[in-house]
Amino acid sequence: MRTRESVCRRKVRYASRGEAMEAATASGLILYAYACDRCFRFHLTSRTKGRRRQPASAEPGRVQPSPSLSA
Question: 42 vs 7, 31, 67, 69, CA distance in Å?
Fold first, then answer.
């Protein structure tokens, strides 16, 4: 599915997948990096619709938040 232009305009653009994944890790949320077919940069999303389910360790664009040390 093609990214809508209005969605692309309001999202942060990252030059590389690595840069996007660093931002995802820093957010503390489970986010996925994807290449945008509009701006040819990378964006972050939390959506999983249409994605094949794989073990978390096998998904290259997925970042899991660090476990909390408080009990």
Answer: 13, 12, 26, 31
| CA trace torsion 15, 26, 56, 53 (10° rounding) | -60
Instruction: List all residues 6 or more positions away from 64 whose beta carbon is below 8 Å from its beta carbon.
Output: 30, 56
Three-state secondary structure call for residue 56: helix
Cβ of 32: how many Cβ atoms within 10 Å?
Answer: 19
Give this prediction's pTM: 0.64
Q: E-assigned strands of the chain?
A: 31-35, 42-45, 62-63
Model pLDDT for residues 45-58, shown as the tens digit of each residue:
998 776 666 665 55
